[in-house]
Amino acid sequence: MSARHIVVVGASLAGSRTARALRDQGFDGRLTLVGDEPHAPYDRPPLSKQLLADAWEFDDIALPSTDDLDADLRTGVPAAALRLADRELVLADGDRVGWDGLVIATGAAARPWPATVPDGVHTLRTLDDARALRRDLTAAGARLLVVGAGFLGSEVAATAVALGVPTTLVEAEELPMARAIGAVAGDFVARLHQEAGVDLRTGTTVRSFTGADRVTGADLGDGTHVPATVVLLALGAVPHTAWLRGSGLRVDGAVVCDEYGRVLAEDGTVVPDVVAVGDVSRRPHPLADGPADGTLHLGHWSAAVEHSALAARVLLHPAGDGDLPEPPVTVPSFWSDLHGVRIRSLGLPHLADEARTVEHDLPGRRLEISYHRDGEPIGALTVDRARRLAAYRPLLVEAARRRRAAPTTVGSVPTTV
Ligand SMILES: Cc1cc2nc3c(=O)[nH]c(=O)nc-3n(C[C@H](O)[C@H](O)[C@H](O)COP(=O)(O)OP(=O)(O)OC[C@H]3O[C@@H](n4cnc5c(N)ncnc54)[C@H](O)[C@@H]3O)c2cc1C
Q1: Mean pLDDT in the chain?
Q2: How many structural domains are present in the chain?
Q3: Residue-wise pLDDT tens digits, 217-236
Q4: How confident is the model at residue 413, as a pLDDT?
Q5: Same domain, yes or no, for 138 and 27?
Q6: Range with the lowest mean pLDDT among 47-51, 274-278, 316-320?
Q7: Is residue 344 part of a domain?
Q8: Are residues 122 and 264 in the same domain?
Q9: Where does a domain end: 197, 213, 235?
Q10: How far is the CA of 365 from the centre of ligand 1 (A)?
Q11: With 392 labelled, which of 97, 112, 304, 357 sits at a CA distance of 20 to 30 A?
């Protein structure tokens, strides 16, 4: 039996998957999972969909139990600091935990409003957030204002109108999600919202909220006022890295890793036996290539899962045992459920310089777009055309392999899409 102790910080999707992958790959040493939430690990995507709609409860979103992993699960206690030189994790309750291998899986938090807000203004990242939002949405006379028409804001607006709640969706750009998926797909989403009865206001922003104790609405930059009893701020996510301050790790918005998920020190060298996975991390991707330190922060469910298996492999790779094999080429993927349709994307549509519309059928609720950069495939998106999307995967793997073999500088360091 191994005498090593591996500690996983963050007991959600990426953390629990990495713990399972470690056991599946034969790790028989001590395993500890540290998580700051009081709940058993659960899945987040349903929080803006089925759980908010009251169709599902906790049991439906619980991640596979970690009971069979022979791990010490410490929930309800955040990690407060990392001492790399001593190989020690300091917990908020003062406890110190020594480690031989460390997995950083602390995910992200919802980006807050930059000033104090009245009651009734929510963000959505956790189960408790979703329950609080659901309570306000199901109160008599509820009117919802969503700030930000990215995937999360759009999903919540869609869920709310389906519940019969009058909903206004405010977006600073001219179209929802246009930076992530382009103008044609953004326009398609705008029309889905409008057909479903969402009051979509684009090209404007919320200046301030009205209401002393409890929110009554918001004043917009275009001079209009939107009445609301409940507000959701959907302004993006901020990786949970505060606990790593002073640790000596390179943090650039998210924890910076190499393509294997091994974290980098401030001087750019690989830190032995420490990996980062999921939403807290950023790493290079061959489809993006770009400058030497060009890394992607994806914030996608599938990325968290893919990172986990590789992280376990890297941690269990004997130190000093030659080079690791080339990292597998993975194709980023994302889905979102809106107004009864499923949007799926592959690759990195936000890096495209050209979008080719293959099918556009708004009444039939079907869409297919292929995205290209320098004439090479870089992504694809479909609405309710899952099988067609699958056909793009091998093309994107090939394109990524070609870029890895002969990188051409894209020169962009994108953030969460
Ligand atoms: C409402 C919602 C809907 C989504 N829908 C989709 C979707 O449709 N499709 C899709 O692809 N993706 C979706 N996502 C994104 C997806 O859920 C994330 O990519 C995924 O949860 C990332 O997993 P993670 O384990 O890296 O991070 P997280 O799920 O954020 O988990 C990190 C865990 O670490 C804990 N933690 C933080 N700091 C500390 C600390 N100091 N000490 C200990 N623990 C700590 C956190 O509380 C949390 O429990 C959605 C996300 C949200 C919030």
Answers
A1: 93
A2: 3
A3: 999 999 999 999 999 999 99
A4: 37
A5: no
A6: 316-320
A7: yes
A8: no
A9: 235
A10: 30
A11: 304
Domain assignment present for residue 323? The answer is no
Q: Which residue has the tokens 């199901």?
A: 138
Gap between the Cα atoms of 221 and 223, Å rounded: 5
Q: Which domain holds residue 304?
A: 5-109+238-316
Strands 376-383 and 341-347: what pairing? antiparallel
**Would 68 be classed as within a structural domain?**
yes
Which is the closest atom of ligand 1 to the Cα of 242? 41
Q: What is the distance between the alpha carbons of residues 43 and 37, in angstroms, rounded to a whole number?
A: 13
Same domain for 184 and 148: yes
Where do we find the tokens 């028989």? 28
**Token reading at 177:** 């999600």
pLDDT tens digits, one per residue of 313-353 = 999 986 655 667 888 889 999 999 999 999 999 999 999 99
CA 67 / ligand 1 centre spacing (Å): 21
Global pTM? Answer: 0.95
Percent helix, percent strand, percent coil in the chain, to nearest 5: 25, 30, 40
Per-residue pLDDT reduced to its tens digit, 122-162: 999 999 999 999 999 999 999 999 999 999 999 999 999 99
Q: What is the CATH number of the domain that holds 388?
A: 3.30.390.30
Question: Does a structural domain hold residue 190?
Answer: yes
